[in-house]
Amino acid sequence: MPKSDKQYEPQHHALSRTLGLFPVTMIGVGAMIGAGIFVLTGIAAGVAGPALLLVFSLNGVIAFLTAFAYAELGSAMPAAGGGYVWVRESLGGLHGFMAGWMSWFAQATACSLYVLGFGYYLAEALHALGVLGPGFETGLAPKVIAVLVAVIFGYINYRGASETALLGGVITVLKVSVLAAFIVSGAVVIFGDPDWTAPFKPFKPMGWSGIIMAMGLTYIAFEGYELIVQTGEEVKRPEKNIPRAIFISLVIVIPIYVLVGFAALGAINPGDMASWQFLAGKGEGAMVAAAEQFMPFGFVLLLIGGLAATTSALNATIYSSSRVAFAMGRNRYMPDLFQKVHPQRRTPHMAVVISAGLIIAMAVTLPIKDVASAASIMFILLFTQVNVAVVGLRHKKPKLKRPFKVPLYPVTPALAVILQLVLGVFLFRLSPIAWYTAAMWILSGLTIYYAYARQREEEVTVSKVIFEEREIVEKDYKIVVLLARQSEVKPLMTLATTLAKAHDGEIWAMAAVEVPGQLPLSAGRRFVGSRRSVLEAADEFERETNVPIHTLARLTHSADVAILDTIKERKPELAIMGWGGHKRARGTTLGRILDPVVRIAPCNVAVIRWRGTEQRYRKILLPTAGGPHARYAAGLAADLARAFKASLTVCYAVKKGASQVERQEAMGWIEKTLEDVPLEKIPLSKELLESTSVQKAIIDESQNHDLVIIGSSNIRPWKQLVFGDIPRKVHLRAPATVIMVRKYEGPARSWLFRFFTAGGQGK
What we know:
It is a single chain. The chain contains 27 helices and eleven strands. By secondary structure, the chain is an alpha/beta fold. It folds into three domains: 17-459, Amino acid/polyamine transporter I, CATH 1.20.1740; 477-603 and 744-763, Rossmann fold (3-Layer(aba) Sandwich), CATH 3.40.50; 612-740, Rossmann fold (3-Layer(aba) Sandwich). α4 (83-90) packs across α15 (368-396), α15 (368-396) crosses α17 and α25 (694-702) runs parallel beside α26.
């Protein structure tokens, strides 16, 4: 059929969402705990005294007010860039630029806080091991370590490696576990003292001004939901999971903050000073000093927890800050340098390098209290803009679908703005340097906008439609074909078009374009060209076979997720994939991509390993041991034999010297396999293969055939093998082309495979 006659544009792109509710929630929890507890507790106690408990509680209330705005916009407009994207969409122009400018600085400054915290904790550990001598606290060691770790994690992000959702979840669970042990140990000591309330008196030694200053200082501890919405493009069902993740993370973190403060203040023995003064004297090391007094192995556990907390948080914020810088470059607010992507590593390498430089500059030039204050100021200003953006978008886009809406609108965002600005004003009393630094950053942003960015913004042309689908008449029988390289197109499309023609079906040929985690999925469109020639070659089969073929390139952070997304959307009868015979990931059978797809795809699956270049099969071999997979393989074998006018040999392997009864049972399995399979006009033979090894018998027999089709063994879900040992060995060693087949056995068995074999991922 000529392309001009088709009713649709065949090539389009799609995004694959990879993150469920749990990993997204752990992103928020991990980011908050990274700063609010391990680094800021002692500093904040010195400002607020025992009222630190009230500080965390009141901050939680204000955080909830802004969380409503993030939940509404995150569910309605899930996109990489978070608050910056919404402010730009709502207010545009200068406000949009300044939101990105401040978000970039806020993330980078927060990361400076984390690297300083890491530097302190690692210096403590080295001091305990005798590597650093006395007095290291006042020396350069923590700052030197901070610079080194910023360089290391900047390089990690430059290369493209990033923390997986699973690893992030494990680290967050570790941090929460350490804090839980801290809380329980402290509670035992506190409630064992008849006068346990004494450390909390007087409750407000610094008055309300101290409480509000401490609230401003620690407000950065609630910036985790900014990181949650930064992942908007990768979140499954963002309309539900983003609001849930935001509120669940706050519900988890706020009580932890309050209880940790309670334990730290009430369980220590401060000598002849107040508990809060003791903590203030220890500064960022207050948690370690407290744990050392009342918690078993407290020094070691808190050091481990502090290092884990700051490590995961600083990695997340380097990632986030470079994403914002990249997004601003892509929107032409910043020089093209910021939107450059490394040709091999596919990372926004220049945005990473510049962000890492900014992080190091802040860590080197400012004390940790001023770094925390500067970060809080920037987040306060960003959160204020987001609350204003909620109001602006309600008026600008009244018909926008909002799965979650801010309650008591517009009172809630207005109250959040007022309270946050109050915190910002009081921060000037705590750290004038932080406000001067923030003011300089804002003034530099205004200068850049009017001197450069505004002109660039006006040059942006209207975006073009990437694809258009008019009308696609769907067939009942669908096949999804995964294409990864040019050499796979002919064997896979030959098989797919033959089966589709036999059932009057259609084909969805797809290519997964993997985008590094450092980039938002939408930025991966520039890599689609690497798969274009593969999809164009697949599309040519429509002219040759007259089978409807649709091509799709899917942007994803994990190719197996992209394949499964396509299968779930298209609901095919069969998914066809190729395998080169070599696995590339430890602990996998076919590789990190194919293993999870074969195990849990909600459709039948065929994996082909081809030999030679000729796809005109004349002799087909069907080994069987019975079962649903073998019966489904028999149906495919019959379709192919009929299409290629090939002979079909159905065989069963028996041991040498098998008895007559065993031979009759074997022939019975062959007959059962062929039940309900139409075999008209197919030259058919049924054979028993005698050998000491089943796979050897099949491999030897395959030398006389062009194609072997073998069904999966009936393996249990907790077994790690994908198709079973015998089909895998035949697939690997047979000299003929081999197709392994797995019949879909329903959602229950698919769920069991997912449960027992979770963790296998790519090709």
